[in-house]
Amino acid sequence: MMTPHDAFSVGSGFSMSISSSTNLRSSGCSSPISATFERRLEAVDHTRRNNVSFEQTKEKIRKMLDKVELSVSAYDTSWVAMVPSPSSQNAPLFPQCVNWLLENQHEDGSWGVNYHKHQSLNKDMLSSTLACILALKKWGTGERQISKGLQFIELNSASVTDETIEKPAGFDIIFPGMIEYARDLNLVIPLGSEVVDALIQKRDLDLTSESFSKGKEAFLVYVLEGTRKIKDWDLIVKYQRKNGSLFDSPATTAAAFTQFRNDGCLRYLSSLLQKFEAAVPTVYPFDQYARLSIIDTLESLGIDRDFKNEIRSTLDETYRCWLRGDEEICLDLATCALAFRLLHSHGHDVSYDPLKPFAEESGFSDTLEGYLKNTTSVLELFKASQSYPHESALKEQCSWTKQYLEMELSNWPITSVQEEYLKKKVEDALSFPSYASLERLDHRRNLLSGSCVESTRVMKTSYRFPNDFSSDILKLAVGDFNFCQSIHGEEMKRLDRWIVENRLQELKFARQKLAYCYFSGAATLFSPELSDARISWAKGGVLTTVVDDFFDVGGSKEEMENLIDLVEKWDLDSVPDYCSEQVKIIFSVLRDTILETGEKAFIYQGRTVTHHIVKIWLDLLKSMLREAEWSSDKLTPSLEDYMENAYISFALGPIVLPATYLIGPPLAEKTVESSEYNQLYKLMSTMGRLLNDVQGFKRESAEGKLNAVSLHMIHQQDNRSKDEVVESIKDIAERNRRELQKLVLEEKRSVVPRECKEAFLKMSKVLNLFYRKDDGFTSNDLMTVVKSVIYEPVTLQDESLT
């Protein structure tokens, strides 16, 4: 037989015997070490929550969710400053913007970003500086500032044509357009005639060489301030939003109002200045994407549980906006995809309709984001396509976005820190798909890379949301990860002691898999309050491995039947009749563990569930005996008989099902007996069994054992090859995974609490991760990931937190 733990095979296992002065009783939930540990946990948690810095950081993040602060854009402010008053072409409509430009020039003569001063942002700063110079020159003010700005441009002129430096969106169109505007103002830009001519020639070539498309049309409107050549308002108005803006861009909208005097544009600009007074952001409104990004970051670092109320409130508001088709969500591709994914994962009933136009790559190409080759938007579409794979259109979306991202990775020029972070995000998304990723591994990887907290983006200019976000959230997440890890280490000590006290190490036939059994729980059910569920999960994993080896190689038929008889009778009042010492050891630890879990579950559930846990174990033992009899009698079952037995013998029942009682929400007996609960179990186990059988086919065939692959080949009618059979079984496993995911995310008709359903999905992720490779995880792979989750604290250099 082959259980989930065969994926963890590493010779003699990963031994972790740690002595303790306090003994853990083999039964009961109120052992001295348990009580001591619980008091210690409460003390540590109390200290954590009374840490002033810790609470201040959390409060700061809560405020970020409540009120998003965007960095101001000197570039966009300059274009708003250039808007003339309707009553006089010789006076600015927004003089406060002109004053802001006069007062906010940097010491080096530049305007623009004042964070991450890095060469990679030079084109951004040159573009912002030139725009500010034009605004001041237009109104005949700031002669000293203009002079300093021109000096900055001259000193950094080499960056204009340096192709290794990241370009803001539309730079090749807007920058030469601003140079031409400077000529109209009799202002000489110190770049040299050859450079200027080359820039203008390239701009003209770009505008005329490509065939016309919807994406290009949107782009030309988006960079209106740089072209000043579109004279047809009917073309532009197609992109005007209900708030009066064009693409929510202050710069584009200011250029449109200056040229066309549209009332909607004026309304947008006026509302913008009422809110921001003197300096505007580069995109507005932007609250939805910023808030959703913060939630996504909190979840990707594993600290979202500290902000449950704020997250629920934010997503409820986002859902209301989604239902009314709010343009801030529906007209921004990245926001729409991110909202879809988060709302769906939190149980909101969201339609795929807003994303349907992007089921194929051609739909993406017709957008502004598509023309700009916006990788962030494609990445969000890829992640959204994985969140609910039952829509056929989402499958198509997943396919093309995956291919697109893979192509981007193959030829990715790293021109900035931001590009490096984005590349890392793409690599992780492709390497660790959501259906095969364990949360704690993701959290650690995200903490060490820092990519998930990088909040700087570059469109026409760079912007950041919210300010100082990265440092705060990283410090909080690192502290939380290490706090949880310290608890995991304590639990491992208790479990190691439990094995010794229950004499499991004396069963020479049994594989020692404690570390891996515990790891699969700690990497998914990681938070401190889930300690009982983790312990139950780990003990279930250890004991199912022992029982599997007992029925496979360690026990005689008499011993197997004796063990089943003892569990079936479940007589706790008389002395058990053991036929061997092996049976005594196994039954004793099974009995004590079942009773312990039942006592703990009673505290959570307020009712007795021990009878159900006994039945779970009895079903497993009987299914294993049946397989042992098939093998000893050399019988070939039908594929249907095999699978009806094999999903139980795969041995996930004693691991996952008892743990659902210890997660928190009440599970009524009718819920546990419901078709939904049992379907969750069957889908999870069937998927795992099929993946396992594909993995173990060669080994089990050599041993003369049957599994799903060999039985398909024996009973098939169409003479398919082994490889074709394997692929068809993989497809069946994938369908089961998708059905499981759909059932877990279903809210309307569900009777099983979401937190409990998640346990089934978490186990499916464990299985998909370890069976993704054709040859499974290697010993070194497993040792590395186990240690990283349970034993190795996260440490970051100071510069990583700034």
TrEMBL record:
Domain (Terpene synthase metal-binding) ranges: 503-738
UniProt xrefs under CDD domains: Terpene_cyclase_plant_C1 (cd00684)
Cofactor(s), by name: Mg(2+)
An annotated GO cellular component: chloroplast
Sorted UniProt keywords: Lyase, Magnesium, Metal-binding
Database matches in Pfam families: Terpene_synth, Terpene_synth_C
Name the chain's protein: ent-kaurene synthase
Q: Might you give the EC number(s) for this enzyme?
A: 4.2.3.19
Give the UniProt record's GO annotations in the biological process aspect.
gibberellin biosynthetic process
Q: Which residues form the signal peptide?
A: none
| Domain Terpene synthase N-terminal: residue ranges | 232-430
Domain of life (superkingdom):
Eukaryota
